[in-house]
Structure formats: structure tokens, C-alpha cells
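Hi everyone,

Forwarding the result from last night's run.
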Amino acid sequence: MKIHREGLAFLRNTAIIILVLCIGFLMGIKGVFSILLVVAALCLLAFLWFFRNPVRNVEPAENVIYAPADGKIVVVEQTYESEYLRRDCIQVSIFMSPLNVHVNRYPIGGTVLYVNHSDGSHKIAHLPKSSHRNERNSVVIETVSGTQILMRQIAGAMARRIVCYAKVGDTAIQGEDMGFIKFGSRVDLFLPLDADIQVDLEDTVRGNNTVIAMLPSATGSENSGTDE
């Protein structure tokens, strides 16, 4: 088990606070210091849990879409993706509670074609409208066979920061860290209509472990992205 780099500052600052409180406690300043020390220690344990980054290696597979995050499937439906792909897709959404691992991983390998951050509200992430109204970050990956997949990170009611490491032109390596959403969130995948979906509503999934969908070996004309 590793700790994600996004949590290092939280852990460092909390450890410093605990050290100061311990010094005060040893100097005989008790009372409130004792309570604060317990609270700080609990916060440290919570941060260690929240920012955990379990090692989960995958065998690269061109036609396999792995879960990009841990959580529960809250949407599996056909919808029109209007931001970049501009076509009907199968949307699969994963809701991540504060107890889940919050690392976001590349669901498939390829080339990053598009990265865009949009400001928005911070409503409950499992609501359908959150995909368009909440703060979000969209990344489009094109596989070596030309299939384009859109992955969208969505901030939830508790989330206040979306972190995305992807940049246009990057090589996306399946299973590697793509980003992180702090304190409650959701991840949407927009897949081709001919993708063979392997999950159902309410399924619990694990990043890099659960297969979300299988792509056909040959791509069709619908994978042409923004071409019209």
C-alpha cells in the first residue's frame, strides 16, 4: 500500500500539528491540548485512509476498458456526449464515496487528444445532472486502433479539487494514475455504442481490477470523434 502524492501535504501538516501538541502536552499544557491531540491523531488516520493508493497492476489490453476508479456503478445508459465526441455513447458512471480509493487511473492505453476543465457547482455526485453541472474535467483518449473514449472527473458535494495529470499529446498508459479527486466524487466513461458492457447498476468496481467493457477488435465510422 502506498500513499498518493496528493496526500503528502495533508500528512506533513497534520504531523507537524501533532508534534507541536505533543510538545505542549509534555510541557504540562494539558486540557484543551489533550483534546486537540486526539482530534489531530484521528485526522492523520483519516488522511492515511483517504489518500491510500493500492498497487494494482494490469496486463495492457487494447480492447479492454478497466474501471478507472473504485466505487459503485450509478449510471449505465445511452446518451449524447456533446462536449467533444458529439455522438451517442454508452455512459457508465462510477460514484466514489469518501471511503473509496480516490485515485483515477487510465482505463485504456492510447494518446491523449483533449483535456478540458469546466467550473461548476458541487452537488451530490451520483445525481445524473452532475455530469453537466458540477465542476468537472474531461479527458479524451484515442486507442491505437482509433477508438476515442471520453473520461470525465466530476467533483461531488464534498470535493473541492479535481487533479488531472493528463496533457494533450501524452501517451496514456493503461492502469497508471491519471488524476485524483479529493473527498467524494464521480467518474464518467463515454464509450462507443458497440462496446460490450460488463457491469450493471449497483455493481461495486475496483480500479484496474474490474472490466467495465470490451471494445470490438475493429473500429467503425462512429469512432471519428468530432468529424461530421
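The first helix runs from residue 8 to 26.

Cheers,
N.
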